[in-house]
Specification:
- The structure is a single chain.
- By secondary structure, the chain is an alpha/beta fold.
- It has 2 domains: about 350 residues, Glycoside hydrolase, family 3, N-terminal domain (TIM Barrel); about 130 residues, Rossmann fold (3-Layer(aba) Sandwich).
- Helix content is about 40%, strand content about 10%.
- The termini are far apart.
Length: about 500
C-alpha cells in the first residue's frame, strides 16, 4: 500500500487517489472501486462496457454516490460518432461536424443542453466533451467528424455554445484535446502526433476554440498527447509545464481542472511508461489522470497511485503540486454536486433525442442530383467499411441500410471492407436503385477505386457520405456529416421521400 512507503505522510495515498479518474469493468461498481471511494478516490470514468440501458446506468451512478456523495462520474460522450450511452444503437444526436454544417449556435447549445439534461438524469457529472479541435487536415485519421469543422472561428463559436449548453443541463464540460489535435495524420492512441506551424498559426487556428471554451466557463480541459514544437520542442503537451502552466493557466487564464487524455495511450506510455507518464503529467500541471480504457483493474490504479506517492517521497513531484491538483478536483466535485442539487434527477425511459433528429435533418446536404430524389423504389445499398477509428466503439452500429429498409421494405444490402469488394458491385441491384455509402471517401484509395468502378457501371447511383465530404463525386451526392443513428435516419428519410 502507498501509505507504507517510507517517508510518506499518512494522507499521501488519499491525495494520490484523489487525482485519479480510473475506469473499471462491469455494469455495477466493483468492490475495489467502492473501497477506494471511501479511501480518497475522487472520480471514476465510465465506458460503453459499463452501460446497458438508462435504469441500469442510473443505478450504477447511484451506487457510486452511496459510497461518496460528491464523486465525479465522467464519461466520454461526444453525442456523435463517439458515443458511450448509446454505443449499442448509435447516437440519437448528429455530432459536432453536423452542427458545424448547420452553423446555428442556438441549435448547438440546445442539443448540448438536451444531452446535459439526459446525462445529469443518469448521474453523470463530467463529460469529456466538446471536441474543440479544428479539423484543418482532411487526412486526420482520428478527429474528422468529431470536430465542428476546419474553420477556427466556426469551431470556436460552436465550442462555446456546446460548453454553455452542456453546463446549463447540469454537467461539467471538458474541452479537448488541448492545444489541438486537428492538424495531424497520426492517432495518439498509436503514436505521438506532431503539430507543426509557428506560434502565430497556433494562436489563429488551434488555440482559438480553447480560448472560447475558457471564456464560456468550461469546468475542465483535456490535454492531448501531442508534440507541438512551437510551444515545447521536447515534451508532449500532457507532460509539458510550458503548455499546461505557461500557456493554458497563465496565458489563457484557465482555472478549472486539467484532465489528461488516457495515460495508457501509446503516444506517452511507450515513451515514458504507464506510471511515468502519470507522474510527469501531474508535475507539469495536470490535475486529474484519466485511465482505464484499456487498463481497468485495481492493480492498474494501484500502480499509478503508488508511483505518485513514491515520486512525492523521492522529491520528483512536489507534495504542494499534488495537493493543488487534489484541491482543484475537489472544487470540480463541489460544482457538480451543486449542479445536481439544482436539478431533479429524471431518468428517461429510453435513450433518444427529438432535438437531435431535427438537427440531423438540418445537417443533410445534397451537393448534386437533388431532383433525382427520392428513390424510385427499394434499393440495393452497398456500404464500404473503413478501418475503425479507435475512439469509436467497435460495437457502435452505422450505415443507412437498416433505417432505409424500415422505411422501404425490400431494400437489400451488402457491406465490404478493404480486400472484400467484389468485381461486380451491382450484384443484387439489377432493376433497382443503387446506393453507395462511404465514410471519408477521400482518405481511402481502395474505397475510391470501388466507388469509381461502380459509378462507371451505374452512373445514376446515389453516393451517401457519412464522414467528411471532402470528395464529392457521382450524379447524386448526399452528405450527412456524421455516421450517427440520427444522421442515418435523416438520410434514409430523404432517400425514401418520407419527409
Amino acid at each position: 500500500m502507498s501509505e507504507r512507503i517510507v517517508g510518506a505522510s499518512p494522507d499521501l495515498a488519499a491525495l494520490a487517489a484523489a487525482v485519479l479518474q480510473p475506469g473499471f469493468v462491469g455494469t455495477t461498481p466493483p468492490a475495489w472501486v467502492c473501497r477506494w471511494l471511501g479511501e480518497g478516490l475522487g472520480s471514476v470514468v465510465l465506458f460503453a462496457r459499463n452501460v446497458v440501458e438508462p435504469e441500469q446506468l442510473a443505478a450504477l451512478t447511484a451506487a457510486l454516490r452511496a459510497e461518496r456523495p460528491d464523486v465525479i462520474v465522467a464519461i466520454d460522450e461526444e453525442a456523435g460518432d463517439v458515443t458511450r450511452i448509446e454505443s449499442a444503437r448509435g447516437s440519437s444526436r448528429p455530432g459536432n461536424f453536423a452542427l458545424g454544417a448547420v452553423d446555428d449556435v442556438a441549435l448547438t447549445e440546445e442539443v448540448a443542453r438536451d444531452l446535459g439534461a439526459e446525462l445529469a438524469g443518469l448521474g453523470i457529472t463530467l463529460d469529456y466533451a466538446p471536441d474543440a479541435d479544428v479539423n484543418s487536415n482532411p487526412a486526420n485519421p482520428v478527429i474528422g467528424v468529431r470536430s465542428f469543422g476546419p474553420d477556427p472561428a466556426l469551431v470556436a463559436r460552436h465550442t462555446a455554445a456546446w460548453v454553455r449548453g452542456l453546463q446549463a443541463g447540469g454537467v461539467a464540460a471538458c474541452a479537448k484535446h488541448f492545444p489541438g489535435h486537428g492538424d495531424t495524420r497520426v492517432d495518439s492512441h498509436h503514436d505521438l502526433p506532431r503539430i507543426g506551424g509557428d506560434r502565430a498559426r497556433l494562436d489563429a487556428v488551434e488555440l482559438a476554440p480553447f480560448r472560447a471554451a475558457v471564456a464560456a466557463g468550461a469546468q475542465a480541459v483535456m490535454t492531448g498527447h501531442l508534440l507541438v514544437p512551437a510551444l515545447d520542442p521536447e515534451l508532449p503537451a500532457t507532460l509539458s509545464p510550458r503548455i499546461l502552466g505557461g500557456l493554458l493557466r497563465d496565458e489563457l487564464g484557465f482555472h478549472g481542472v486539467v484532465v489528461t487524455d488516457a495515460v495508457e495511450m501509446r503516444a506517452v506510455a511507450d515513451r515514458y511508461g504507464f506510471a511515468g507518464a502519470a507522474v510527469r503529467a501531474l508535475a507539469a500541471g495536470a490535475d486529474a489522470i484519466c485511465v482505464g480504457g484499456e487498463r481497468a483493474t485495481e492493480a492498474d490504479a494501484a500502480e499509478l497511485r503508488d508511483a505518485i506517492v513514491a515520486a512525492v517521497v523521492a522529491g520528483e513531484l512536489p507534495e504542494e503540486r499534488l495537493a493543488e491538483a487534489a484541491k482543484r478536483v475537489g472544487q470540480l466535485a463541489a460544482w457538480t454536486a451543486a449542479a445536481r442539487a439544482d436539478r431533479p434527477a429524471v431518468v428517461r425511459g429510453a435513450y433518444g433525442s427529438a432535438v437531435g433528429l431535427a438537427a440531423a435533418r438540418r445537417a443533410l446536404r445534397v451537393a448534386a442530383g437533388a431532383e433525382r430524389l427520392p428513390l424510385a423504389g427499394p434499393a440495393h445499398v452497398v456500404e464500404f467499411a473503413p478501418p475503425r477509428n479507435i475512439a469509436i466503439g467497435a460495437e457502435t452500429p452505422w450505415g443507412i441500410a437498416a433505417p432505409l429498409a424500415g422505411l422501404v421494405p425490400g431494400t437489400t444490402t451488402a457491406r465490404y471492407a478493404e480486400g472484400e469488394v467484389p468485381a461486380d458491385l451491382g450484384t443484387g441491384s439489377a432493376g433497382r436503385p443503387l446506393v453507395l455509402v462511404v465514410r471519408d471517401l477521400h482518405r481511402h484509395g481502395w474505397m475510391r477505386a470501388a466507388v469509381t468502378r461502380a459509378l462507371a457501371a451505374r452512373p445514376e447511383a446515389v453516393v451517401v457520405e457519412l464522414g467528411v465530404p471532402e470528395l464529392v463525386i457521382g450524379a447524386v451526392h448526399v452528405a450527412t456529416h456524421g455516421a450517427t443513428r440520427a444522421a442515418a435516419q435523416a438520410a434514409a428519410e430523404l432517400l425514401a421521400g418520407a419527409r
